[in-house]
Design goal:
Blueprint lengths: L17 H16 L1 H4 L7 E6 L5 H12 L3 E5 L13 H9 L4 E6 L4 H8 L4 E6 L5 H15 L6 E5 L6 H10 L6 E5 L8 H10 L3 E4 L2 H4 L5 E4 L10 H7 L18 E3 L20 H20 L2
Parallel strand pairs: 1-2, 1-3, 3-4, 5-6, 5-8, 6-7, 8-9
The structure holds N-carbamoyl-L-aspartate.
N-carbamoyl-L-aspartate binds next to helix 3 and helix 7.
Length: 308
């Protein structure tokens, strides 16, 4: 998205073309091979991490990314410690931060908040997760992982399992992968946690093959990738529903017996109960690699948006 000041922001993974994703993947691979080459690229630049919602990976990954590029970081990690608690609007906060920093990474519980920031800021804004909507930089981590594990983005049957309704990483992953030839989705969830209509309709309009099912084990043999997700406790209106649904799917070593030998298991983390710890030793488990890949993709994205 480009605002009235001509500033480019990334709010959705679809703000990046397929070619731009390829460029980011190539940059990330080059960073992995030659980290020294990039160690001073962002000297004198500041990243502001504006996190109105809890985070471990995303915030620290952005911070590690900026430090590894030689830049600095300012920011806050909860709404309570920002002027939002005094009633300041996101629009005003983003105008203020534009006076201090060169780029913003924002996470917010309200869908669309980073868009409001991007419309008002005079520096690029990266959506680091907005409510149950989108999470484009998690998808960049997922994409690099898929590229490194599978060597391609096309002709893959991607199983997505868990909370497909509120899981913002799921929505962005479907957007991203829907652009490649021969990709199909197996959407595995309880009835109550199926993908929102706008996500389903987008797949229908693009002619993407997908099935919706409640059956994880039955789906297993056909999957090239299994993307597990946490039931998003913080988005539920009542605790009873959460308690009833939270353990709908638990991936165990036994359930993987019917999976392809080269299936890749992804998870954006944090894990609660969805993957038993015994699965971590399975060579198909990629979720900790995904964390590392996220940092390199965020480095590549910061470089691109700062034009350095
Ligand atoms: C995800 C998120 O915040 O949406 N976490 C992350 O950024 N890696 C997934 C989740 O919280 O379940």
């Amino acid at each position: 998205m480009t605002n009235k000041f001509g500033i480019e922001s990334v709010l959705s993974i679809l703000d990046l073309s397929v070619e731009e994703v390829d460029e980011l993947v190539a940059t990330a691979e080059d960073i992995i091979a030659n980290p020294q080459k990039y160690a001073h690229r962002c000297e004198g630049k500041k990243l502001a991490t504006l996190f109105f919602e809890p985070s471990t990976r995303t915030r620290l990954s952005f911070e590690a990314a900026m430090y590894e590029l030689g830049g600095n970081v300012i920011g806050f990690s909860s709404a309570d410690s920002s002027s939002a608690s005094k009633g300041e609007s996101v629009a005003d906060t983003s105008k203020v931060i534009s006076c201090y920093a060169d780029i913003i990474a924002m996470r917010h519980p309200k869908e669309g908040a980073p868009m409001v920031a991007a419309l008002n800021a005079t520096i690029p804004v990266i959506n680091a997760g907005d409510g149950g909507h989108n999470h484009p930089t998690q998808t960049l981590a997922d994409l690099l992982t898929i590229k490194l594990e599978k060597g391609r983005f096309d002709h893959l049957n991607i199983g997505v399992c868990g909370d497909l309704k509120f899981g913002r990483t799921v929505h962005s992953l479907i957007d991203a992968m829907s652009r490649y030839e021969g990709v199909s989705f197996t959407l595995i969830s309880p009835e109550e946690l199926k993908v929102p209509d706008y996500v389903r309709n987008a797949m229908i309009n693009k002619g993407i093959p997908f099935v919706e099912t409640t059956d994880l084990e039955g789906s297993m043999p056909s999957l090239d990738i299994l993307y597990m997700t946490r039931v998003q406790k913080e988005r539920f209106f009542n605790e009873e529903d959460y308690l009833r649904l939270k353990d709908s799917y638990i991936l165990t070593a036994e359930k993987l017996d019917n999976a392809k030998q080269n299936m890749s298991i992804l998870h954006p983390l944090p894990r609660v109960n969805e993957i038993s710890v015994a699965v971590d030793d399975d060579p198909r488990a990629c979720y900790f690699k995904q964390v590392r890949n996220g940092k390199y993709m965020r480095m590549a994205l910061i470089l691109k948006l700062l034009g350095v």
